[in-house]
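User: Structure please.
Assistant: Input sequence and predicted structure:
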Amino acid sequence: MKITFIGGGNMADALIGGLLRKDSPAQDIRVVDTSADARRKIEQKYGVTCFDKVKGAVREDDVVVFAVKPQHPSTCARRPRNPGSPTTPTSSSASPPGCASPTSRNG
């Protein structure tokens, strides 16, 4: 399973560590974070690929995990342009305020 994390802080760090301990390959995990320090820390700790922007980071068949704090909605992705496409999320444990939930039509 290929996974891209939006946000490279503590939540992503913990999840990535768990995935790697369960034998997920590092090359299947990507992280997007605007902070160069956060990207450097995650890259050095786990050997995953990091990006400073979502564009180019998310692969068509990725599971996308939003690992951003609710008070930082501007760092999350906007509602998908093509609902129902393979890259559209179909479930979420929570959507930060200001971010469209996967089931929202007015996001």
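The CA atoms of residues 88 and 105 lie 13 Å apart.
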